[in-house]
Specification:
mainly beta; 11% helix; globular; Porin; twelve-stranded antiparallel barrel; single chain
Length: 265
């Protein structure tokens, strides 16, 4: 147990070192952009999916869900996400802050942090023995860094390094994920319709358990159309992480609204 805690401590320190080093390089690279006109963006999206899936197994809903995403800002953005089961019960609320930096034209680095709430319906019993359902809330703090290199308009490749700290004593305390994320975008299908495929292989460690997973997302959209179709599959290649699911998939329909605005000085 002591050696496991030492390993986790080393990994956490490595994540913090990489994030701080990346920030210093990125901020240095941004100085030359200080004279560029600042155009901010507001984006809202709603996604209905056949099964709520999370890359972290114990946060998977496993039944039809709807997700609402908001995004406001330019390089530094606030991106809250609200997830609900279709019966109206809350699934999760995630309050993301992200900084979108770049080094040159092709290398992008995104820094992520969030405070999130996860909800789970559990059965309890009153003193009289009556069964009742209650919604239990658990809290998490997250930090992540994501460098991405865009080879051309069709191919990109990225890494994602993620640390999640559980704030309740009865949940997983330390979750670490390292993933390889190639991306294939602007794939022509017909006319103005194109597709995007995002395969991912990731290593996940949750306290004393770990595993390797395959995750693949795809989407199909039409130019200048706010509606798109998406899907996702998730399969453990090797894992001793407790989970109710061995293979997960879903399909979804999303509507996205985007609006740009300039700062007035």
């Amino acid at each position: 147990m002591e050696s496991m805690c030492t390993k986790n401590s080393i990994l956490i320190k490595l994540i913090l070192h990489l994030i701080l080093t990346g920030i210093s390089y990125t901020l240095s690279a941004q100085r030359s952009d200080s004279t560029v006109a600042k155009i901010n963006n507001f984006t809202a999206a709603a996604l209905i999916q056949s099964k709520g899936i999370s890359t972290i197994p114990n946060l998977t809903l496993g039944k039809p869900a709807v997700t609402f995403d908001l995004k406001i800002g330019r390089k530094l953005t606030f991106e809250p996400q609200f997830r609900f089961a279709l019966d109206g019960k809350p699934w999760a609320m995630v309050f993301w802050w992200r900084y979108y930096g770049s080094i040159g034209q092709k290398l992008k680095i995104t820094y992520h942090t969030n405070y999130s709430l996860s909800y789970k319906t559990i059965t309890s019993y009153t003193s009289s023995g009556t069964q009742q359902e209650i919604i239990r809330t658990t809290r998490y703090l997250v930090g992540a860094i994501q460098p991405t290199y865009q080879v051309n308009k069709y191919i990109g490749v990225g890494l994602y390094l993620f640390y999640n700290r559980g704030l309740e004593s009865f949940i997983t305390q330390n979750t670490i994920m390292l993933s390889l994320r190639p991306a294939f975008s602007n794939i022509p299908i017909t006319g103005n319709i194109s597709a995007r495929i995002d395969p991912e292989v990731y290593y996940l460690r949750m306290d004393d358990n770990d595993g390797v997973f395959l995750n693949t997302r795809f989407s199909v959209s039409k130019n200048n159309c706010p509606i798109s179709v998406s899907g996702l599959i998730n399969k453990p290649l090797r894992s001793d992480i407790p989970s109710d699911y061995d293979f997960l998939w879903n399909v979804g329909l999303s509507y996205t609204f985007k609006k740009g605005y300039s700062e007035v000085r």
